[in-house]
Design goal:
By secondary structure, this protein is an all-alpha fold. Helices cover about 50% and strands about 0% of the residues. It has one helix spanning about 5-25. The longest helix is centred in the middle third of the chain and has 21 residues, at about 5-25.
Length: about 45
């Protein structure tokens, strides 16, 4: 394998990884919000 097969594939992997991380940073963060509980008027 003298044609730099592994090096080429590693470079492609690094490019895909960088694109994924750039896209991931721009996604909105998912936050779980609990519904507000009403005040208990019986107390």
């Amino acid at each position: 394998m003298a044609d730099n097969f592994l090096e080429k594939h590693y470079e492609e992997y690094e490019a895909r990884k960088a694109a994924y991380l750039r896209k991931k940073r721009h996604l909105p963060k998912i936050t779980s919000r609990l519904p507000e509980r009403p005040e208990d008027e019986a107390l």
